[in-house]
Write a structure and sequence with these properties.
mainly alpha; transmembrane; transmembrane helix; membrane; CLUMA_CG010480, isoform A
């Protein structure tokens, strides 16, 4: 039996990956206020959201 939670199946992999992306978005929002360039902050957030949505579509398509 494996002690790695993401080694048990595809669903766990997608859930873990979504959790990682949500954590990254949380960090971006948390530290975004300290960044001087607000335009960069918004662009990074939009890019992360686009990548996240594409990732979700790919995982749903594969499962």
């Amino acid at each position: 039996m494996s002690h790695l939670p993401f080694a048990t199946g595809g669903l766990d992999v997608s859930v873990m990956t979504l959790g990682i992306w949500r954590f990254l978005l949380f960090l971006l929002l948390l530290f975004g206020n300290e960044w001087q360039d607000e335009e960069f902050d918004c662009n990074m957030l939009m890019k992360l959201m686009v990548v996240h949505s594409k990732l979700v579509k790919v995982m749903r398509w594969e499962s």
